[in-house]
Structure formats: structure tokens, C-alpha cells
């Protein structure tokens, strides 16, 4: 604030300033004061005592006609639009984005409009929640999972999300059934998606499993299965997507779902193969980012903390004491919800993270920061 503006506000708000307070010629217009002269501008202020002073300054500076003193304690409006002339609110993101009379998108770098994104492990849980967030940001989404079509399972919510995508969001959610270990089928699906859309902009590789067994009891088959899905599956899914991006000369963003368990050893949880698999995913991310950066392909990992998913609930059924202990182990003293990873999905797949690659975004409630 300039010296003149500080002088203008130095007097008591209870009384208008006297001529001796400061020279009239020295008054510079206060920020926003010009709005008082613009017709059709709706200005309301809760500081009712300030309104007479502003009008007094306006008369002295601009020669505005004097107005009757307002009643004390009222909130004053220079101009209020009739209710019939006010713009309606919009019930869906699609309506707001498509109606040109609404205010512009304030953060366009988060928009995924017209982009095509694949989500593996997208039939339920975290993958499906993030797929819905991508839809709401404007993307066309294809989900890959080994489960039978979730459209036949009302509990999954997939069918309702797919209907809402078409009805309200002007986009689509499509399901493809395959196992990420079936590399030939995986590549075929990616190629078909890219050919039909003429592009492939992003991937979230969320397919994965967890299995808890003490290290002294693990079998080689159990370790092989964990690694083949969590590591090789993530690698082959990313490879299949990147091949299409390179073929189409299409820059893109790939997010591999890792875990805080790839950085720490969870207290009281015996899952050495799972922890090792997620550590491998974090390192895989760095290596892929280094190789594919020249094609404009960014690769990052998202490392969640404990999430209340069906997988975790099954674990609590076997170890009920953990439901009480685990929330106390992070700084927020609670477990996370799948919905708390919606924003990170949009961030990592959009231009909002355009200079981010080879990085791990850890969202764990401060669990690993002790």
C-alpha cells in the first residue's frame, strides 16, 4: 500500500475525514474504487461502517452525487442483479466445461480433455477410483483387469461410473479383461486402443497383489508370483503403452503404483516379497524415465500409505489388532481412503506435472517421515 493510501485510511471510520486531514489534490484512487462508478457491478461488503467513507472519498475525487446516509448495521450493495438475470449453477463438470458463458477453467493444466488413458487393475479399488477421477477431468479411460467384466458386479460401482461418464461427462469408460502377465494380449489391447483413438496419452499401472508370509516360510513359487505381477506386470504394461506413444510420436505420462512399503519395512508386517516388489517398481520408474525422456514420456511412481480397500480389510480379518494399531503409526492417526488419491492421479497424468519424471510421490500421512 502506498503512503497516500495509508494516509487515506488513517482517519477514524466513525467520522468522514475533515479537509485538514490531508490535501484533496493528494488523493489517489483506492484499489477497487473505480468499481463504484461501473454500472452492473455487484459489490457487497460486510464492513458496513466503511461504506459511507468510501462514498465520501468518491464524491471528493470524482464528483459523484451525494447519496443518503445508509442505516447503521446494514450490508450495502452498489448494485444487485435481479434473481432472474443471475447465471444458473451447473450440476456436472461437463455442463460447466461445455457452457461458454461460465467462467473459464482456472487451472487448465489439470485438464485431461480429449486425452486417452489406460488404467490397469481398474476393475475395483484404487484403480477404479482413480479412473473415475480421470473421467471427471475429461479423459477417455480404458480399464484393464484380470477379473470378469465388473459391469456384472453392482457392488464394484463400475457400471454406474461408466453410465455417468456417458451421461454427464461426455466421455467413456471401457473395460478390457486380461492378465498383465499375458504380454501378447496386453500389447494387442494397447495397440487397438491407440489405433481407434489415434493417440495414447497416459497409463496408470495399478494392478498388483499382496501376500504376507514370514521370510523363513516363503516358497519360490510365492515369490515368483508376487514379482511376476507386481514388477514384471508393471514393466510390461508400461512397455506396451510406451511402444504406442513412440509409434504415434505422442508424448505421454506413465504412473506406476508403488507403495510406502517400497521405502520402509512396515512394523509388525511380514511381507518381504511385497516390499521388495514395490522397491523394484520405484527403481524401475527411474530407469524407464531415463530411457523414455527423449520421447517426451514421463514416468513417475505413486506410493500410498495404508488404504482402506478390500485387500486391507481382508488383512484386518486375519489380524484384527492391526485395525487399532496401524492408524496410530502415521502423523494423522488414521488410515487413508481411496478417494484421497484422486487428485494425485490427475496431477501425475496431466500437464500440471509436465516437468516431473523419475520421481516418487509418497502420500502416507507422514508414516515414513518419523
UniProtKB/TrEMBL annotation:
Pfam families: adh_short_C2. PROSITE patterns: ADH_SHORT. It comes from Purpureocillium lavendulum. Keywords: NADP, Oxidoreductase. Gene3D superfamilies: NAD(P)-binding Rossmann-like Domain. Residues 83-103 are annotated as: Disordered. Belongs to the short-chain dehydrogenases/reductases (SDR) family. GO terms for molecular function: oxidoreductase activity, acting on NAD(P)H, oxygen as acceptor; oxidoreductase activity, acting on the CH-OH group of donors, NAD or NADP as acceptor. InterPro entries: NAD(P)-bd_dom_sf, Sc_DH/Rdtase_CS, SDR_fam. This is Short-chain dehydrogenase. It comes from the Eukaryota. The keyword Oxidoreductase applies. Residues 92-102 have a biased composition (Polar residues).
Amino acid at each position: 500500500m502506498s503512503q497516500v493510501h495509508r494516509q487515506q485510511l488513517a482517519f477514524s471510520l466513525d467520522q468522514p475525514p475533515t479537509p485538514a486531514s490531508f490535501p484533496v489534490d493528494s488523493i489517489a484512487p483506492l484499489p477497487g474504487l473505480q468499481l463504484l462508478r461501473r454500472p452492473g457491478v455487484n459489490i457487497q461488503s460486510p464492513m458496513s461502517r466503511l461504506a459511507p467513507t468510501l462514498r465520501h472519498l468518491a464524491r471528493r475525487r470524482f464528483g459523484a452525487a451525494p447519496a443518503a446516509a445508509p442505516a447503521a448495521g446494514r450490508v450495502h450493495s452498489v448494485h444487485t442483479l435481479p434473481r432472474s438475470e443471475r447465471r444458473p449453477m451447473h450440476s456436472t463438470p461437463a455442463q460447466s466445461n461445455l457452457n461458454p458463458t461460465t467462467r473459464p477453467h482456472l487451472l487448465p493444466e489439470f485438464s485431461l480433455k480429449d486425452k486417452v488413458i489406460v488404467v490397469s487393475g481398474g476393475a475395483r479399488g484404487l484403480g477404479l477410483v482413480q479412473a473415475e477421477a480421470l473421467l471427471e477431468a475429461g479423459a477417455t479411460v480404458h480399464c484393464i483387469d484380470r477379473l470378469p467384466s465388473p459391469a456384472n458386479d453392482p457392488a464394484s460401482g463400475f457400471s454406474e461410473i461408466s453410465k455417468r461418464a456417458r451421461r454427464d461427462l461426455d466421455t467413456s469408460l471401457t473395460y478390457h479383461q486380461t492378465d498383465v502377465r499375458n504380454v501378447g494380449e496386453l500389447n494387442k489391447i494397447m495397440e487397438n486402443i491407440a489405433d481407434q483413438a489415434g493417440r495414447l496419452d497416459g497409463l496408470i499401472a495399478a494392478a498388483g497383489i499382496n501376500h504376507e508370509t514370514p521370510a523363513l516360510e516363503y516358497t519360490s513359487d510365492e515369490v515368483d508370483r508376487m514379482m511376476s505381477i507386481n514388477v514384471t506386470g508393471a514393466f510390461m504394461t508400461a512397455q506396451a503403452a510406451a511402444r504406442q506413444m513412440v509409434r504415434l510420436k505422442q508424448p505421454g505420462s506413465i504412473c506406476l503404483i508403488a507403495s510406502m512399503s517400497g521405502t520402509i519395512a512396515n512394523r509388525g508386517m511380514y511381507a518381504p516379497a511385497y516390499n521388495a516388489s514395490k522397491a523394484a517398481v520405484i527403481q524401475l520408474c527411474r530407469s524407464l524415465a531415463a530411457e523414455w525422456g527423449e520421447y517426451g514420456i514421463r514416468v513417475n511412481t505413486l506410493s500410498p500409505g495404508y488404504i482402506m480397500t478390500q485387500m486391507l480389510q481382508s488383512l484386518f480379518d486375519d489380524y484384527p489388532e492391526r485395525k487399532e494399531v496401524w492408524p496410530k503409526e502415521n502423523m494423522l492417526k488414521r488410515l487413508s481412503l481411496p478417494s484421497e488419491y484422486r487428485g494425485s492421479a490427475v496431477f501425475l497424468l496431466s500437464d500440471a506435472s509436465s516437468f516431473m519424471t523419475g520421481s516418487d510421490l509418497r502420500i502416507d500421512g507422514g508414516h515414513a517421515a518419523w
